[in-house]
């Protein structure tokens, strides 16, 4: 077993590098997801729709749990992920709706 210059075995260093690459990809995908949900939030605000959609959220949790099972990932991880993301999305949608209300008040005045 050979070690890298940091003293970490090369195999462990290689595996960690792969994990780091996946983490970067996940962050980039999450950023793209939030760009799309911002657009959804703007649409909802413009059309007077509520920031949250509990029925869709429940369907999404079911869908991700099924995908997790197929991918041999603990479905609880997918549910925790989606619960966190949805909470952030709803928070953003509420802020967008408030911004829209304020803009409408300025326009109406």
From TrEMBL:
<feature type="domain" description="Chorismate mutase">
    <location>
        <begin position="6"/>
        <end position="97"/>
    </location>
</feature>
<keyword id="KW-0413">Isomerase</keyword>
<protein>
    <submittedName>
        <fullName>Chorismate mutase</fullName>
        <ecNumber>5.4.99.5</ecNumber>
    </submittedName>
</protein>
<dbReference type="GO" id="GO:0046417">
    <property type="term" value="P:chorismate metabolic process"/>
</dbReference>
<dbReference type="InterPro" id="IPR010951">
    <property type="entry name" value="CM_bact"/>
</dbReference>
<dbReference type="GO" id="GO:0009697">
    <property type="term" value="P:salicylic acid biosynthetic process"/>
</dbReference>
<dbReference type="InterPro" id="IPR036263">
    <property type="entry name" value="Chorismate_II_sf"/>
</dbReference>
<dbReference type="InterPro" id="IPR036979">
    <property type="entry name" value="CM_dom_sf"/>
</dbReference>
<dbReference type="GO" id="GO:0004106">
    <property type="term" value="F:chorismate mutase activity"/>
</dbReference>
<dbReference type="InterPro" id="IPR051331">
    <property type="entry name" value="Chorismate_mutase-related"/>
</dbReference>
<dbReference type="InterPro" id="IPR002701">
    <property type="entry name" value="CM_II_prokaryot"/>
</dbReference>
<dbReference type="Pfam" id="PF01817">
    <property type="entry name" value="CM_2"/>
</dbReference>
């Amino acid at each position: 077993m050979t070690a890298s210059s940091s003293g970490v075995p090369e195999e462990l260093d290689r595996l960690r590098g792969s994990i780091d690459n996946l983490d970067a990809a996940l962050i980039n995908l999450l950023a793209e997801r939030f760009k799309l949900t911002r657009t959804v939030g703007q649409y909802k605000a413009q059309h007077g729709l509520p920031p949250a959609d509990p029925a869709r959220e429940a369907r999404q949790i079911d869908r991700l749990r099924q995908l997790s099972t197929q991918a041999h990932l603990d479905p609880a991880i997918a549910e925790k992920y989606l619960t966190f993301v949805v909470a952030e999305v709803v928070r953003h949608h509420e802020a967008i709706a408030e911004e829209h209300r304020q803009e409408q008040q300025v326009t109406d005045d």
